[in-house]
Amino acid sequence: MKRSQDVEIEEKVKFDSLLQNKHLLQGLKESGYERPSPVQLKAIPMGRLGVDMIAQAKSGTGKTVVFGVITLEAINLVIAQPQAIIIAPTREIAIQIRDVVRNLGRFMPSLQCHAFIGGISMQTDVQNANHSHIIVGTPGRLMALLESKKLSTTHIKLVVLDEADKLMSDTFYPQIDYIFSKMKSTVFQVVAFSATFTDELLQLVSKFLKNPQTVCLTDGVPTLNEVQQYYINTSTSDNESHLQRYKNKYQAVEKILGHVPFYQGMIFVNSLPRSMELSRWLNEMGWKSGHIHAGITQDKRLSVMEDLRDFKLRILVCSDLIARGIDVDRVNLVINLDLPWEVETYLHRVGRTGRYGTSGIAINLIGSAEDKEFLQKLRNEGIQIDILPDKVSHNKYVKQLTESDQKHLNQHESQKIESKPLILNHKHDRSSGSSSNAAQKKKAKKKHPKPQKQISRQTDTTHQEDSSQFQPSFAWEPLKTSHPQPTATTLAPANQVNIFIPPDLFF
Fold first, then answer.
1. How many CB atoms lie within 10 A of CB 478?
2. Domain limits of the chain?
3. pTM higher than 0.70
4. Deepest in the core among 66, 235, 259, 463, taking most CB within 10 A?
């Protein structure tokens, strides 16, 4: 398979030149890893030396394998006690890391690696805590286990901070500080990974590292080379209402899905109710879709992610809850129905496609003045985003599918797609738009507080979301298609069943 420069290295370099552990090498091979990516080639040897390390590389270039290998190399299987803690900002990332570590270590006898996250029985975690070699968890649950003295840190020799920029945010910093304060061992290694490391972040994370070595493979803006980024103007008038703008955005999503070839796609929104509404509407049209947000149970979220990975779903509608770290290599289309509030979050969203050197496409729906301002902000950062052309060549982001994946894709593409009209209720049409984004921007820029003696006891800060949104600007006509096109907008009584109202307007 053709790889981008993000992960491409000399063909002669293999993992067996970096490692001697035959069980781990076998796990790497069975997991599909024979040759290391650039970040793996540079960071694994350094991490195996036991030094503290900061590793910066683009999303999708193989950072999880780096600290997975370092962790598996560090532990002693004879000691049936926790020896490594991997901290992740979200439940979904923690589960994914656990699965990667288990796969890499599948041939290591008696290896025990468990995930400790909110939404799962505390009793089960207590039973697993002190019989696991490797602990993977979110800050809130790890803090709860430490507070209740159910997790021993006596033998901890390695701590991994994944998505360190997020872990150093206001939400998690006090919890990370607390976790480190409970380490009984005086000598342990700390490694931190992120796609971005600002001066402020380096200052914050330096508290937890001693003379760290640095591995940096991000030159300029940390976007993947093979991800094509486009935008669409979605409004038809400067005076259109807020509700009409969102109707335009929904219809733009329908047109994109009907005319841009893709395997699996992710659509990002900024509100919990909108993810539910959009997923429902897509399913009604015949697109097999699911949604993930903070309002559904952990079991349901895990089930949706499993369906996505098993190719039972074609589309996932989601918030920034899973903008980071989630790796499904068939995802080659990302749509930002709502733009995020920060460039960093945008980079993580776009990074859900083009994983590990493959190719992908990201499309941004631009409607309001704020959308346009954010688009310009991205360009000022050196990110190339062009208007979506009439034709997008699938050859630019095609990949070779397995026989099973091709079968699933054929089943999805044989699904009958029927356009569903958007029926607006004019009683709820509020042209004033959504709540102020200025307040959100101010909140996003708030400086990190110094660690306080009073530690926040939030056990599920992993899932906080903001229901504010950007309003949507549209002069894009899709290619000719056999799919039925949306009918003209009509007005309907308030009690009509199929009313389309973006529900975030009222929550």
1. 17
2. 15-216, 227-413
3. no
4. 66
Max Cα-Cα span within the chain: 71
Model confidence at 358, in pLDDT bands (50, 70, 90)?
Answer: low
Q: Does domain 227-413 have CATH number 3.40.50.300?
A: yes
* Alpha carbon distances (Å) from 47 to 71, 346, 468: 9, 29, 41
Query: CA separation (Å) from 111 to 21, 99, 162?
Result: 14, 13, 21
- Give the containing element (helix H, strand E) for 204: helix 199-205
Check for a shared fold between 15-216 and 227-413.
yes
Fold designation for 15-216:
Rossmann fold (3.40.50)
CB pairs under 8 A, 24+ apart, for 14-21?
18/44, 18/45, 19/44, 19/69, 19/73, 21/72, 21/73
220-267 pLDDT tens trace? 555 556 788 999 999 877 777 888 888 899 999 999 999 898 999 999
3-class DSSP assignment, residue 26: helix
How many residues are given for the chain?
Answer: 507
Q: What local confidence, expressed as pLDDT, does residue 411 receive?
A: 92
* Residue 75: C-alpha distances to residues 313, 317, 441, 484 (Å): 37, 38, 43, 58
Give the model confidence (pLDDT) of 14-49 as tens digits: 888 889 899 999 999 998 888 888 889 889 999 998
What number of helices (H) and strands (E) belong to the chain? 16, 14
The candidate with the shortest Cα–Cα distance to 323, out of 99, 163, 136, 502, is 163
What string of DSSP letters covers 314-365? SEEEE-GGGSSS---TTEEEEEESS--SSHHHHHHHHTTSSGGG--EEEEEE
Q: Is the dihedral of CA 257, 260, 266, 268 positive or negative?
A: negative
- For residue 77, the tally of other CB atoms under 10 A from its CB is 15
Of 385, 359, 345, nearest in space to 470 by CA:
345
Closest CA relative to residue 114, chosen from 89, 141, 74: 141
- Comparing 454 with 114, the larger pLDDT belongs to 114
Tokens found for residue 50: 């036991």
